[in-house]
Design a protein that fits this description.
The strands form two sheets. Strands 4, 5, 6, 7, 8 and 9 form a six-stranded mixed sheet that branches. A three-stranded antiparallel sheet has the order 1-3-2. By secondary structure, the chain is an alpha/beta fold. The protein is built from nine helices and nine strands. The protein is 42% helix and 20% strand. The N and C termini lie far apart (44 Å). A hairpin with a 2-residue loop joins strand 2 and strand 3.
Length: 219
């Protein structure tokens, strides 16, 4: 029986939202942490999480994210304050908010896929941030909701052992792969700024948080 911390090519492909062939090619070329058991490729969950985080932090997934404009993906009504200590409750509350966006056509599917994605692998990025994300055929255009937690969310299995306090949930259309990766990179890079993170946690209203996100904080 394969350990829960060991992933197959199919599971890694599903997590990264790429084809199994792409994962296989990366493994063959040594571009992704992997190992062989006989003739079968296997991947350590912790190593894949770190690999993704490193690439996002270095903006290697897609460095050209100047086209991301906060006003096109977030609005003040999609910024909410959370008060849950578990990630399931926090993710469901944020998915319920995100489902109010006109771009999301299937509320139930969004919630189910967000939780399924999180069960496969944690979306915590370190620095008290999580960026849960899905691409779905029932989403017509990329949209984001932001959750600012007033309580430490303690079960996100973060790499740096810091409880999650900021959640950026991204839902995109299935054919928006490049834009989806650009948005992931954009928020990962922008949220490296500690002043911005602290200011978001101290925000009193969604409008204040939106103004901070639309401001000129630099990494």
């Amino acid at each position: 029986m394969i350990d829960d911390d060991i992933l197959t090519i199919e599971e890694v492909a599903r997590y990264l939202r790429v084809s199994e062939r792409t994962v296989y090619d990366w493994a063959q070329k040594g571009e992704i942490p992997s190992g062989k058991i006989g003739t079968v490729w296997r991947f350590k969950k912790t190593e894949i999480e770190q690999w993704v985080n490193d690439r996002l932090s270095a903006n290697k997934l897609n460095p050209q994210f100047n086209s991301i404009h906060i006003a096109t993906v977030i609005s003040p009504d999609r910024i909410i304050f959370l008060n849950y200590s578990t990630k399931k409750d926090a993710l469901l509350a944020l998915a319920d908010n995100l489902a109010n966006a006109p771009q999301v056509k299937n509320r139930q599917e969004l919630a189910q896929e967000i939780l399924k994605r999180e069960e496969l692998m944690s979306t915590a990025m370190g620095r008290s941030i999580a960026i849960p994300h899905v691409r779905l055929s029932s989403v017509t255009d990329l949209v984001v909701s932001v959750g600012i937690s007033q309580t430490d969310i303690i079960d996100f299995q973060t790499l740096d052992d810091e409880p999650v306090r900021l959640i950026f949930m991204i839902a995109a259309a299935y054919n928006q792969h490049a834009y989806y990766l650009q948005t992931l990179s954009f928020f990962s890079a922008r949220l490296k700024n500690q002043e911005l993170r602290n200011a978001l946690l101290a925000a009193k209203t969604p409008e204040e948080a939106y103004t901070l996100l639309a401001g000129e904080y630099r990494t």
